[in-house]
Amino acid sequence: MSMHFLSSFSIIKYHRKQFLGHLIAKFSTMAHPLVAVCQMTSTNDKGKNLQTVRELAERAKSRTACIAFFPEACDYLADNKKDIIAMAQPLNRSIISSYKEIAKANKIWLSLGGLHEALNDDKNRISNTHVVINSEGEIASIYRKIHLFDMNNKITGVRLMESDYVLAGQKIEPPISTPAGKLGLSICYDMRFPELSLSLRNMGAEILTYPSAFTYQTGAAHWEVLLRARAIETQCYVIAAAQTGTHNKKRVSWGHAMIIDPWGTIVAQCSEKTDMVLAEIDLNLLKQIRQNMPCENHRRTDIYPKIEPCNL
Does 58 qualify as catalytic in the annotation? Predict the structure, then answer.
């Protein structure tokens, strides 16, 4: 074999390597961040619930997700007020330390929606608290649920009074920067109040998240339509982790954890079991939708009346 041929062959190999390297680099810069939305069936067994969170976070990381979203009550779901309060912990206790360890060990962000936070409250109440932990195992944001789910229907006999044991939050937290985009925090019942989602959008949110434990009946009727409405009206991604299945004799959750794009299209959805699904967050799509339909430019805040309470 001549030296000229070997030289030419080496040049071809070099240019091929350079081309492939350029192609890989191009596609890596074009790739959009992946997020994982998780679904589980919490019980009063805190150790088992924690293990489920750990396993789902590890699965999410193995699929290259940068954030894993978990549902309301991912720490536990008890069947009576006494245990709900007794099992709660302040944010500096072991359960948060365990979540921090999971995030740090897997180098993944965690959205933990609706943890039971013990408070120093004279009425023996707790907070329904959404905690976001970054990939270094540090708390990045804390939001306490401002809309409490109270239902005391004498006709149907259904009584679910969150305010019996939860102290309502008093603040909308500003969206936080994450590897997937600017994330606005809410919890479950908050999704029924578009004022909150629009406020978060106006504060810069690109993603809204609603970790939930929707009851089966209300979920069947309203879950999807509410989430899609929040995405469409804010032109944000919506990520809704969910509880699913039978937790105890008193409680069954709807499930159907999902991710919705800013056009209102469901791009990922869990099945009827403990599960995890992935979706890309394409902020270029978000910008395009907002440019093509610039609703915020048309919002008539100058003439909208102040919303006053309606007491029925």
Answer: no
